[in-house]
From TrEMBL:
Belongs to the CbiQ family. It is a multi-pass membrane protein. It holds the Pfam family CbiQ. It comes from Chelativorans composti. This is Energy-coupling factor transporter transmembrane component T family protein. It is found in: Membrane. The chain crosses the membrane at residues 7-25, 31-48, 60-80, 86-105, 112-137, 177-197. The keyword Plastid does not apply. The keyword Membrane applies.
Amino acid sequence: MKRLEEVNFFVKLAAAFAVTLAAWLAPDWRFGVPLALLAVLFLKLAQVPGVRAYVKGATLLVLLVMASWIVNLLVQGLALTEAVPVATGMAARLVTTTAAFFFIMETSSPGSILAAASAARLPPAVTLVLSLTFGLIPMLREEFERIADAQRARGMEIDNVPFPVRLRFALARGVPLLVQAVRMAHAISLSLSIYGFDMSRKRTTWRSVGLMVEPRLTAEKEPR
């Protein structure tokens, strides 16, 4: 796991795009389902943090996607035997996509993203967008879990309840999560202003960035 965290962010991003592209270019569910299972198995074998929570979310995603697509295709006139494979393939592609980018988010710290983007001499706006996109989502997920713990502390049973009730409670967390996201965005923008972030100013990196991202630059010995 430690070595995966040190892999260059753009290498992991390219690998995720390659896996996603393979999933979406092969629409047949007989290819998509094994690829999705392999993606989830890779997360498990790599010991990526939060895999159990991801599997729960992916299961919910599969159920919602399949139900909505089957109903939609039946309304359009397709037979059930034709609608189920199409819905299964769509759900499998979404699982593969989310697993690939879940791996990036859980193995890339904001510092490693900033170091890789700075070493690549990307524009400040692109660097900021990448670091915020892949850095804020894990923070929002943790906030989502804290909201659930607050619901439990207030006596709301959200675990041993029927699935529709659990789904309704999960959707109810969206409003406080949105409020917290706005507050977080305001705090980040205020911090950037205080530290003098300038879109036109180029930055350097404090890490040695290649295929792997080293924690610090190594000091070279002076020749005698």
